[in-house]
């Protein structure tokens, strides 16, 4: 590759580098409408989602109360049952 071609390709890459950052900038007025991602959820749908989430959390809480998690010891069967707990 010639030096001129390398220089030209480098200039093109440097010119295109800010394009990715510029594409992330919103060109709005900066008012209230620009805050946060756009949403298509209605108030009724949000209330429904909240009710579903609450029911889920209640179910998980009840399950934890009814079936407490047993303490697990993944290395339990690797230890000897002799009671020799000295460290070497």
Structural summary, described in words:
- This protein is mostly helical and 88 residues long.
- It has a domain at 41-68.
- 51% of the residues lie in helices and 0% in strands.
- The protein is built from two helices and no strands.
- The protein starts with a helix and ends in a 22-residue tail after the last helix.
- The mean pLDDT is 79.
Summarize the structure.
With 88 residues, the chain is mainly α.
Order of helices and strands: HH
Shape: flat
Give a quick account of the main beta sheet: strands, pairing sense, barrel closure. none
Multimerization status: single chain
Structural class determined from secondary elements = mainly alpha
Number of strands: 0
Helix content: 40-55%
- The parts where pLDDT drops under 50 for at least 5 residues are none
Q: Counting H and I runs of at least 4 residues, what is the number of helices?
A: 2
Averaged pLDDT: 79
What is Rg? 30 Å
- Through-space gap between termini: 64 Å
Strand content: under 5%
Topology:
Blueprint: H1 3-23, H2 43-66
Describe the structure using short key phrases.
88 residues, mainly alpha, 2 helices, 0% strand, flat
């Amino acid at each position: 590759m010639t030096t001129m071609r390398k220089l030209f390709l480098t200039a093109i890459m440097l010119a295109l580098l800010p394009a990715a950052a510029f594409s992330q900038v919103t060109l709005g007025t900066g008012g209230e409408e620009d805050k946060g991602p756009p949403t298509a959820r209605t108030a009724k749908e949000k209330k429904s989602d909240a009710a579903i989430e609450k029911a889920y959390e209640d179910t998980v809480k009840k399950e934890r109360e009814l079936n407490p998690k047993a303490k697990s010891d993944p290395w339990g069967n690797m230890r000897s049952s002799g009671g020799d707990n000295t460290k070497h």
